[in-house]
Amino acid sequence: MFQAPRGTQDILPEDAAYWLFVERTARDWAARYGYGEIRTPTFEETGLFLRGVGDSTDIVEKEMYTFQDKGGGELTLRPEGTAPIVRAYIEHGMASRPQPVRLFSFVNCFRYDRPQRGRYREFHQWDCEAIGEIDPLVDAELIILLWRVYQALGLRDLTLQLNSIGDARCRPAYLERLREYYRPLVATVCPDCRRRYETNPLRLLDCKNAACQAAIAGAPRLLDYLCAECAEHFAALRAYLADADLPVEINPRLVRGLDYYTKTVFEVWPAEAGAQSALGGGGRYDGLVEQLGGRPTPAIGFATGIERIILNLKAQSIEPPLLPGPRVYVAHLGDRPRREAMRLADALRQQGVPTLVAVGGRSMRAQLRHANALGAPWVVVIGEDELARGVVQVKNMRGGESVELAPQAAVERLAAGG
Q1: How far apart are alpha carbons 172 and 170 in whole angstroms?
Q2: CB-count exposure of residue 157 (10 Å: 0-12, 13-18, 19+)
Q3: Of 55, 210, 278, 376, which residue is least crowded by CB atoms under 10 Å?
Q4: Mean pLDDT of the chain
Q5: Residues 155-172 pLDDT 10s
């Protein structure tokens, strides 16, 4: 028997209400902040991620789904959403639009990772990107947008983890100091960190291996090495977030897992989970547009995992609004009444009334039981007798009363709410 591939899941109707709740809330708040929707392909040229995400990251080295198409080109299922959006920004000349260009997208991403609670090989994100402005007010607004969405969903006990990782001017001196600190410790850290020491030392601070935590705790703080511009940017951002009354925790070990970040990085953590189960996060990537072939352009963005949001909604017993079920169930007996039932149901649907028609060979009693099980508040009954007299029965399943009406009158009444 076939099953869903490991690390993927089926979203069943009973869970769809959570997904719709999250997506509608995110769309509503994105519009309030002036973000427009963009949709990018599920796969891209592999080079986009090699250059954009970084060839020494775990994503590129271990996790990408890469394949050759029939023309010999190398393609990759997107492992994250930012690089494709930046590619679209460059390709479609969005630099000529009023800046910053504010974009959001709902994307499914793919990483060959070890499946675990809240982590899948196919996962879904809401991405927001503001491209074309360096002002820390843009950073603050983007972070506040993410926070307001979590608030609107009803999530509680969250903290905002915040850090600055500097830029190309101040980070090299810090990296040299970090290498000096780790040099006598290399033999004590995990194999991945030994490799990171050589290829990408900043990722040493992002390791989740328990054996590496003592070394991370004693590492020099990047915040102590910021240049004047980066320090001023970070101070302004902190002031804006304080004005918004967000519960900010400065986390000097927070670096995120992608190479393109500069200055601001942030994550939102649920109280009990910590960094392993961050709800969402992001940061500034002022060099990525240029790195992918555009002109120098500052930018900032975030991604939040839909699966992780829903996991936390369930953990906090937050129920989404129920999806509407059928308002009308059309029951019938006989071939001619069945055809009339189809016509009446179509007329109701065109008036915006969710309507189901009985199918199969159920008895009238079984049809009424079916309507009741579906929660339909109204049932229209059509039999040979009703058809001969040019009427239908409209039955209120909650109050029990029934009335005979001409078919068009029944449609008008039910469309008006019953």
Answers
A1: 6
A2: exposed
A3: 210
A4: 93
A5: 999 999 999 999 989 989
CB 109 within 8 A of CB 210: no
Domains (ranges, CATH) in the chain? 13-170+226-315 (3.30.930.10), 328-415 (3.40.50.800)
Q: Residue written as tokens 């009158």?
A: 409
Supply 242's token pair: 């304080």
Tell me: the pLDDT tens digits for 180-223?
999 998 888 998 898 888 888 888 888 888 889 989 989 999 99
* C-alpha–C-alpha distance, residues 222 and 202, integer Å: 10
Looking at residue 257, what is its pLDDT?
Answer: 67
Question: How is residue 354 written in tokens?
Answer: 């969710």
Confidence of residue 275 (pLDDT cuts 50, 70, 90): very low
Alpha-carbon distance 143 to 243, whole Å? 13
pLDDT of residue 327: 96
Residue 129 has pLDDT above 60, yes or no: yes
Q: Position of tokens 């690089």?
A: 83
- The rounded distance, in Å, linking the Cα atoms of 163 and 396 is 60
pLDDT band at 138 (very low <50, low <70, confident <90, very high): very high
Print the SS3 string covering the chain: CCCCCCCCCCCCHHHHHHHHHHHHHHHHHHHHCCCEECCCCCEEEHHHHHHHCCCCCHHHHHHCCEEECCCCCEEEECCCCHHHHHHHHHHCCHHHCCCCEEEEEEEEEECCCCCECCECCEEEEEEEEEECCCCHHHHHHHHHHHHHHHHHHCCCCEEEEEEECCCCCCHHHHHHHHHHHHHHHHHHCCHHHHHHHHHCHHHHHHCCCHHHHHHHHCCCCHHHHCCHHHHHHHHHHHHHHHHCCCCEEECCCCCCCCCCCEEEEEEEEECCCHHHHCCEEEEECCCHHHHCCCCCCCEEEEEEEHHHHHHHHHHCCCCCCCCCCCCEEEEECCHHHHHHHHHHHHHHHHCCCCEEECCCCCCHHHHHHHHHHHCCCEEEEECHHHHHHCCEEEEECCCCCEEEECHHHHHHHHHCCC
Q: Which amino acid is at 240?
A: Y
